[in-house]
Amino acid sequence: MTGPADGDSGGVWRPPDGRLAYGMQLPVQSQSTLYTEAWETGAGPADLVGIARTADRHGFAYLACCEHVAVPQRLAAAMSTVWYDPVATLAHLAAVTERVRLLSHVAVVGLRHPLLTAKSYATLDRLSGGRLILGVGAGHVREEFEALGVDFEGRGPLLDETVDALKTALGPEEFPAFAGERFAFEGLGQAPRPVQTPRPPLWVGGSSPAALRRAAERGDGWLPQGDRRDRLPRQIARLTALRERAGVTDPVVIGAIAEPLYVGEPGWDTGPGALTGPPERIAASLREYAALGVHQIQLRFRSRGRTELTDQMAAFGTDVAPLLND
Hints:
The protein is α/β, with parallel strands linked by helices.
């Protein structure tokens, strides 16, 4: 198996220039009350496989899986404790798909030594034929850090150094060398190496000033968290300015999380703010993201069951996607 070649210009992978790509966060694998549909609580691996295969057939750029290692009781009612491991989940889905990329959105990589993270995600890139996108974030659950013996207050600088170490460890060298304040390694080989060269893309998640700076200085992409459309222009301008100030000249993939979608007339209450209606209306609305400077949008479909979800995904890929880049 070989990785998809779309957008490959010889450097780190990015979506094709001039075209708005679309992907989605997988349902079922995380079940926060903020976004989980009622049917997901009874769903499982077979549903994830069916959804992944649908995404693969209908032009989705990526499927995403997020991470929490352990959720404290004080947050369990809102967050739930259902958080599938991203490496295990994405590796499972790599085996039943061929084209769709596999994104950790996001992995809390500061919780582990970067060599451990590099081993897991390099293997995932190899098993998937070069389809990994490593999305990283600082994390926000204090108890999670404390249980693993990691300093919660210092998680920002820790993530900065971890990202630097990962870019080295996931690079082309079998024996990478890195020296930082917290981590240092040399003369230690890791194989299999990632398929993608010079390394898999690394996208930084978050919308805080620190996350935006990190994305500007260290990221191949930015994954905003909760920024509405009217806030994106200011954030993108800030990201661009910070990147220029840092002297980073490589292009950055700018993302956005779109409003909940339903292709067609739902006939049921899809909630406030949902974007519904005919394909032309939905595409016209989503094209506005491209006009703001966004390169990829993350979709979430309202649904009452797996079949309705996969039907929505198919309708989007067949009827809406061809209109995104008119």
